[in-house]
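Batch manifest, entry 17 of 40.
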Amino acid sequence: MEKQIILYHGSDHIIKVPVYGLGRKNNDFGFGFYCTENPELAKEWAVSSLKSGYANRYRMNTEYLKILHLNSSDYTILNWIAVLVEHRLFALSTPVAGRAKKYLLEHFSINVNSFDIITGYRADDSYFDYAESFLNNGITVEQLSQAMRLGKPGEQIVIKSKYAFSKLQYEGYDEADPDRYYVQRTLRNESANRMYLDMLNAETDGLYMQDIIRGGLGNDDPRIPRNISC
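Output type: structure tokens
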């Protein structure tokens, strides 16, 4: 990550001064200010309904900030999903799912609150469903890794610490037209779902969550996919 970056936060209102400690604790990585370096994605995220939204724009100096890059090869896809299950509310609809959550937290969890910034996939719409299906032993870890590339969901950058919040400098906003960006968001989601169904119809071998638990697999096992960046 460059020292000087431009971030965009998609919202239904203009946010000149992001406030530390606000937001929903059940977001992907817990409390934080969720942004992206891609203004087009921010505009899609800003229009969750057919109403205008805003891509708020900020400049930030990341020097001296502690950054967790979940999409780097230092981590596996199970690190990402372990962070997700710690914060998001999943429907644990199979017997293995409860054991899966416990196993992931014990073997793959990362203390995200010890970092100033986190980068990683945004698990909304279809992508959350893919993660939920993996937890419930419905798809393999290889299929999960492949699914998270479908439709190019993009990378979110989450501002976590009070110190990092102090580094945000508001620079203005761009309006997001719902007639364009809501449709664009919907088409991206539908495209990912079509590719996901095609993937499920193909024959595959791989590790299900139950296999990972039974085998006592850890983060150093080469069968667990690393570097889930698009």
